[in-house]
Each structure stands twice: as structure tokens, then as C-alpha cells.
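#lab-general

N.A. 3:47 PM
ok so I finally got the sequence cleaned up, no stray characters, all 230 residues accounted for. can someone with queue access submit it? mine expired

B.Y. 3:52 PM
send it over

N.A. 3:53 PM
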Amino acid sequence: MNNNLSNVEISVQELKLLVNTLTKSVALSLRKRYTWLGVVAGLLIGSCLTLAIISLTGKNTDKITETTQTLLEKSQETLSELKQINSKISRLAHTTHGLNEKKQTDNKMSVSTDVVGKKTSAPQDIIQPGIYIVYVHYTNKENKKLMERLSAFLTHNGLRVAGIQKVNYHNQDIRYFHDEDKEGALLLQKHLTEFITPFTSIKNNNIKIINLSSKFPNAQKRALELWVNF
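B.Y. 4:20 PM
back already:
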């Protein structure tokens, strides 16, 4: 009887060991299955994501290509418009340059015409007082101061007074010795009249002009003589 119980107990222990071994084997098998399922699931998910990314990338690429093409078309249109504007600016600049040249030419012609007109309207022989030398002669010794003032007046008006001399002469005249010096004599007469006009005490202010070129052909040119008897 004891031997039978012992055999039974051994059989129970072996059964427990077998059950434990089977349990561990099943658990390990399940872990491996879950692992493979996870790997397969991961691969499937990764493949789907990759396809999705590729699809989105393709769509974005198409959109980028379309956008780039649109920008290129607009750039070409803008470039064409800029070329047209540049052409118009060039034509305008050329026209403006031509107008400026014409205006400058007109201004030069106008200035030249003005100069020619002034030259034409101006006297051909402009009297230069400084080229004439005046010799002053007077009769009354009381008029010495007056002659000095007259000399200063003539000098102020550009004539050159060579000297003042007292003489015994009872007429009044201006003498010149070359035909071309007549204008100088007229100029001297003009200034003399201006000088003596304010003096009311001088009654005899009639000054004659005498041409002595035939009598004194070798006389000094540009020389004038003033003879007064106030």
C-alpha cells in the first residue's frame, strides 16, 4: 500500500512539473507571437506612413511646380512690361535731349542776335575821352581858381588836362588839328557847357569849334586847345 501511494505522489509531482513547463512554453510562445505581431504591425504602419508622405510630397511638388510656373509667367510678363517702359523712357529721353539742344541753339542764336543788334544800334565810333589831351587857356587872372575847377571837372569826365595857361585872348573857342579829332572837340564843348551852366555870372558861353588841320598838319594828334574869356 505504501508503495502505491508513493507512486501516486510522484505522478502528481511530475504532473505539476509538466503543467508548469507547458505554461511557461505557452507564455513564451505568446510573447514571441506578440513580438512578431508588433514588428509586422510596425512595418505595416511605417509603410502606410511612407506612402502617405510620398503621396503628400508628390502633391506638394505638383503644387510647387504649378506655383513656380505661375511665378515664371508673371516674371516674364513683368519683364516684358519693364522693357516697354524702358523703351518709352529712352524715346522720351531722346526727345528731351533734342528739345534741350534746340533750346540751347535758340538761346545762342537769340544771344547772338541781341549782341549783333546791340552792336548795330550802338555808335560805330565810341568816343573814349582818355585819348584826348586838353590845353586850357584863359584871359582874366581872376578866373585862375575857376580854371582849376574846370580842369578838375574835365579830368573827372575822362579827359586829360595837360596844363592851364594865362593868355591875352578875347575870344572863346575849341581848336583841333586833325579831322578825326572833331568828335573829341565836340565832347570837350559838351563838358564845358555842363560846367559853366550853373554859373549865372558867365554870360558869354558861346564856344566855337575851329578846325586847324590845314594850318597845322604836323600838330600833335588827339590834342585839343580850349580858349576862354569869361
